[in-house]
Design goal:
This protein is an alpha/beta fold. Helices cover 35% and strands 18% of the residues. The chain folds into two domains: 62 residues, Phospho-2-dehydro-3-deoxyheptonate aldolase, domain 1 (Alpha-Beta Plaits), CATH 3.30.70.1140; 250 residues, TIM Barrel (Alpha-Beta Barrel), CATH 3.20.20. The chain contains eleven helices and 14 strands. The strands form three sheets. The protein has an eight-stranded parallel beta barrel with strand order 7-8-9-10-11-12-13-14, surrounded by seven helices. Strand 7, helix 3 and strand 8 form a beta-alpha-beta unit. Helix 3 packs parallel to helix 4 and helix 6 packs across helix 7. Bound molecules: phosphoenolpyruvate and manganese (II) ion (MN). The site of manganese (II) ion (MN) has 5 residues, from loops. Phosphoenolpyruvate (PEP) binds next to loops.
Length: 337
């Protein structure tokens, strides 16, 4: 349920509602809006709860939350959420860009890429240190060494570091180095992991599972929000369909649909979404036109030599061109980049 306070309700009245919600055995979540405050009451349905809350002074009305995801829903919070972490801000007027290699490979590689991303106008540096690989024989990442190199790249460039965490017991280590914890597509429904990142003070980039519906995606985000971390970004990275001309199918209608159903910012990853370097730039432009809040792009100075996902990595000159083209699209729809 959502308890909508009258405009001008006092702090005491808000506190009374919170107390009441907790006495009913429900969790409360206060959202201070520009016009009025709403308080979400979350948990199992309780008989008489609505009537009881309606009687508290300062309450305007009590309405049910129809969506199965509660804290993520626009029913609870209409204003868009902007997630900020270090140099990265996602969800405002500016379309942000997170770029970098699939995997951190060496000190020279990540520093060269980081300086280039900075110069090209990106604000986040992505790079995997713990890599989820389909084959156990493929390169698994530099692990803690990779995290140290990412931290060094942040020190030199000021970019925010976005990197994947694969298991709950890795969360404290990765959170020590990262600005944004990435939960990968394969782990979207790893509930202990979602709760573990929910307990940190780091922003989270949650990637959509290749076979997850939007409802399942938002319920996964809800796990993080419910645990207490409200800095969640959703990332569309393509789904598995019968189609095989691309690595995954990148459904861009997800972006406006998510903007209708959730206040959380939406990131698009056209690199995994297409799996083909020569399709990435066009889909990046389309994602900006569809009102994505940020792009996440894999780049590499020498894709043939990349230790993972080289086939979808953009060379520096192609990335520079992508930035210029996307900037024009962003301006055409009243955004900045
Ligand atoms: C990645 O970002 O490199 C990655 C492994 O992505 P996904 O989880 O979307 O496959
Ligand atoms: Mn990759």
């Amino acid at each position: 349920m959502i308890v909508v306070m009258k405009s001008g309700a006092s702090q005491e009245q808000i506190d009374r509602v919170v107390e009441n919600i907790e006495q009913l055995g429900l969790r409360s979540h206060v959202i201070v809006g520009t016009e009025r405050t709403v308080i979400a009451a979350l948990g199992e349905k309780r008989d008489g709860a609505k009537q009881s809350l309606e009687r508290v002074p300062g309450v305007d009305k009590v309405v049910p939350i129809l969506a199965p995801f509660k804290m993520a829903s626009t029913e609870v919070k209409r204003e868009r959420t902007e997630v900020a972490s270090g140099a990265l801000r996602v969800g405002g007027k500016k379309v942000s860009v997170i770029a970098g290699p699939c995997s951190v490979e060496s000190r020279a590689q990540i520093l060269e890429i980081a300086h280039f991303v900075k110069e090209a106008g990106g604000s986040g540096l992505r790079g995997g240190a713990f890599k989820p690989r389909t084959s156990p024989y493929s390169f698994q990442g530099l692990k803690e060494k990779g995290l140290e190199l990412l931290a060094l790249a942040r020190e030199e460039t000021g970019l925010a570091v976005v990197t994947e965490v694969m298991a709950p017991d890795q969360v404290p280590l990765v959170a020590r180095y990262a600005d944004v914890l990435q939960v990968g597509a394969r782990n979207m429904q790893n509930y202990p992991l979602l709760e573990a990142v929910g307990e940190t003070d780091r922003a989270v980039l949650l990637k959509r599972g290749p076979s997850a519906t939007i409802e399942e995606f938002l319920l996964a985000a809800e796990y993080i929000l419910k645990t207490g971390n409200t800095r969640v970004m959703l990332c569309e990275r393509g789904i598995r369909t019968f189609e095989d001309h691309t690595r995954f199918t990148l459904p861009l209608a997800t972006v406006p649909y998510l903007h209708q159903t959730t206040h959380l910012p939406v990131v698009v990853d056209p690199s995994h979404g297409t799996g083909k370097a020569d399709l990435v730039a066009v889909m990046a432009r389309a994602a900006v036109a569809a009102e994505a809040d940020a792009l996440m792009i894999e780049i590499h100075p020498n894709p043939e030599k990349a230790m993972s996902d080289g086939f979808q990595a953009l060379r520096f000159d192609a990335f520079r061109e992508l930035m210029a083209d996307c900037r024009r699209v962003a301006e055409a729809i009243g955004r900045e980049m």
